[in-house]
Queue: 4 jobs
Job 1
Amino acid sequence: MTRSADGEPQPSGSLVRRTTAGGVATITLTDAPHRNALSLELTRELAAAVTAAASDESVGAIVVTADPPVFSAGGSLDDLLDPRAPLEEMYAGFEAIAAAPVPTIAAVGGPAIGAGVNVALACDVIVCSPSARFDPRFLDVGLHPGGGILWRLRERVSRQAAAAMVLCGDALDGEAAAACGLAWRCVPDEALVEAATSLARKAATRPRSLVCRTKQTLDASAAITDGTAAVALELEPQRRSMEDPIFLDRLQTLREKVRPGAVS
């Protein structure tokens, strides 16, 4: 039995590693010999690691990454040929990421193939490197896309881009992914994890309850179709935040920094 950086027990041979530092939990897929394929064991470990991190009140954000050279080769061929669990259970890893109340940032270096793209898309923000490759590839093996990938792709890019990637097999490298909005930023490979962690740290310095509530509102805003409804959706949570001692304390601190008569 080994231990992670935060002192938590980590079974030898684990397929997922979880460490915590500075309010950021980093969850790493570690089955590099099998290209981090989403076997039943790995997806269960991923779901457990994300759930544990999200339930830790000291964690303000989560980074999801993988040991190189492949981010994830997608579904395990063995589990696809001889399923040991219903499809829904095979989605547990990226569904746990999508359900996390705190911000999640994917650090994608190397190929993300098939359901491996789902893992990245489940995160709130994707940071990638030039070596990244986003390749859904479901249709190449005669498999209908699953796990919500079509919806998540349309949310990130557009119907046209989703069609090009899924129907026509047009994979994107890291720079192209950032250019079309699939990824937020493309950075050098050696700076990838630090760039993702830097974003996570910024989120983790903010009041956790407020960040979680804002993420809920952001997701709920997807159903809004006009400005009036958008104002109404944000009104009550903003009003509640104005009554929170954290807001009052931070506002007072800011006020004390402003010189008398200065315009802020």
Job 2
Amino acid sequence: MDTPLRPPLPIASYAAAIRTDAATLASAAATAGPDAPVPTCPEWLVRDLVRHLGGVQRWATSIVATPRTEPWAVDLPEVVGTWPDDDALTAWLQDGADALATTLETADPALQCWTFLKATSPLAMWARRQAHETAIHRVDGESALGASGTPFEPSFGADGVDELLVCFVPRRTTNLTSLAPQVLRVTALDADGDWDVLIGTERVTTLPGGTNPADATVRGEASDLYQALWNRPVSAPLDVTGDPALVALFLDKVHVTWT
């Protein structure tokens, strides 16, 4: 049995996070400049980062607002139409974030639309996913200034870890497998969060922490766990016990990308 779905944060909390993190990213982007490299996403310049997030947010807004009930596999330029000029990038990003947040806030809680992750409802899935999409890319924007990501509130960080471990990692398309079954335990020290990631030869199952003996355990504050498991820099080293190669395997194989 997989881990029971964690109750989501309130939709208003996710919407507020989208607005706040998009504004922080916009400020970092304006300071760094569109041609600055993004160390946490080596293939991107700041321009690419802002375009990506602004495009994804407009894609999500359309799915919720229409609502779209079938998968919408589309390239972001088709969603956006014409990319903004460099001097309009940050305003464009904030406009898109505000439209997305407003769409989520005003949507019918009983909304039925296409989703791609497990969730308590379609609206909860999109609010959660877009809040964490914006949050992680805010960290990327701060990296363009040579700064580590501003810490997240513990409850938000734990929610982001839960989305990654319970919803993303166990999907059929996961690259995280092991020649022999192993268990990675992840424990948040300052929030409600304890997970056992059972890495098998063909699939991953995430269960409540303590379900199985762990081959390796990672402990840390929820914000640091959240950023570290998404392969972003952290403010303090995590406490790793057991086999460090298992942690390295997770970080090497788990990369969520736009496809």
Job 3
Amino acid sequence: MASEPSEVHDLDPEDFHRRVHSFEFWFEAVQGYLTGRPWGHRPETPEAELDERARDRLITALCNYCIGETAALEGASGLVRVAPNRWAKVFLATQVVDEGRHLEVLLHRLGELGVSDPEAEMQRRASSKLLEFKRRLLELVGGQDWEAALFAQNVILESMEFSVFHMHSQRADPVTREVLLGIIKDERRHIGFGENELGRRLKDAPHTRARLGELRRDLDRLVLDTFEESLQALGVPGSERPDLGRNYLAAVERLGFTR
């Protein structure tokens, strides 16, 4: 069984670019944590006993995770056509597969928790801020704004999901923890692609940097309000919430954007 390749980062830039944008690299990266986990977790992983309040909180969180993954699925699929070169198109095709699988395993997890109609439950429990973010993201994709849409999706949305899923996995029941840890591994790759692609484009494009900085400031409030709603739904103490916000802001600021 192949392990997730790390030596690829020692390749020269041209070989690096060719390798990480390939289906071969994607397969090597994901097969280790997909093998034996048809629904994102091992069949033998014990199901914890959750009281009604904990179960309700978990269902609310998973419903909103499904909305986020749906946004990423629709966004990535739309960006395949917008992508400026075949390497980016191939990477985004692998991301579409990832996002579809994330949505599938999260919906299955809702079923394991006794939710018979996930779509209806998602509508009932949806964060208004997250729905607004999804609308804004898909507008950028529909407008074929490559830099802005990629920034909103593979940097902002993926960083938000990574931060929330990482925090949640540290306090989740065993089954949900395994599901989230598998998704997190994919989010790292998606963020890396966004940062790499935009980093090269921003190097000599001050106007693009200014435009994306304005977009970031516009979307920050939606993202941070979504954080607040998600953590409140999970019952995370207020003292731990600023750390999560800082984690997200640090990820976005790696591209040189400050508040």
Job 4
Amino acid sequence: MDADFSAQPTIAAVATAGGVGAVALIRLSGPQAVAIADRVTGGKASAARPRTAIWCRILGVDGKTIDDGLLTVFKGPNSYTGEDSVEFSGHGGLLVTREVLARFLACGAASAGPGEFTQRAFLNGKLDLTQAEGVMDLISAQTSLALRAAREQMEGSIGRHTLAARDEILGVLAHVEAFIDFPDEDIDPQTGRALCDRLGGVSKGIDRLLATADQGRILREGVRTVIFGEPNVGKSSLLNRLLGHERAIVSETAGTTRDTIEETVNLGGIPLRLIDTAGVRVAGDLIEQEGIRRTVLQIDSADLLLEVVDASKPKASLPLLSWSDDTRHLRILNKSDLGRHPDWVTAVGLGLSCESGEGLSELEAAIMEVLHFGTSEWGEHAVAINARHQGCLERARRSLGAAIELLQPGRSDSELAAVDLREALDALGEVVGRIDTEDLLGVIFSSFCIGK
């Protein structure tokens, strides 16, 4: 959607991360961006060629130099926000950066809020809403797969799929409304079937997008991976092995781990939130009882369970534990370097020695497989919707299903079908921001960092 920014204030903010660095970048955007930059540079901004960096000084009210660096002018609409924009790259000290920003603000700029630059880019038609969300995903990506998915989203992959579905529904709606305009004309069976087939194809496309919701959540939040088992089976050793450094205390004394320990590791592009838990057994004291209670709670909320057993010893009688059928589960037969006890000879599980590391690569491959993050599942593109997209797409799918039922041969409910199709259009429009919902925008952009 194009917006008139002539009445909008010109905003400014530091766009680089807080702290001391070699360079800090300050960004301005709005109708007075060039004029404000002129006031602090002695007219350098208006004389600069667009998109060409020039050296300049930032001058204080007394004409003395605050800082010097590179200034770049971007004339709208050929800028990130679609407005006139100016970027100044100066020295990265805390005080000098604060002084430069204060000078821009004193000359007429307003402080930018979280995500305000990207929000203006969206409102001015430079990005759709999924692309704007992709910007934040790109900034916060912790793994290569998350980065890849964010890049796909920024390049408009989700938006293209959604708009293609919307266009197809619009075409069907046009046919349905044509029959509504001529009430004496019923939709003949052949036409009804053709319309249902078209909507069925759209519904399948939405299903394919919805199938990426779990992957999207995992890429953004990480896989809650709970390591559990009885005491002294090697849970903390496994955590340390997966992390690649000594994080948890390893001891032969049972009950050493009394509370949960959480760390994140990048496994083949997937962020695993590893949670080491207290050993499960009949507790000897109140503190250990609390640790075991917390273990049970972690198991209940896990995405992936890594059950560790000491395969060199007889099976133990553990307290009864249960988990959802949807929870992914791998059993790890640890201490394989000590030989396997007869109780575990026929047991299903992955052999591992946390002492030597033997079997670790096979475990990592098994984790990738059980999480369905292989190339065959992703294909060439990494489309991964978020929770907001998921809610919109589920509403669209329900409305499409209702419309398909009403358009079946023998039904004469064109008016009701049209209502359902419009609801599906609205839901899909909400994905890309085709519906103006101020509250929604406030929630989305409030999660951005200032300066972006």
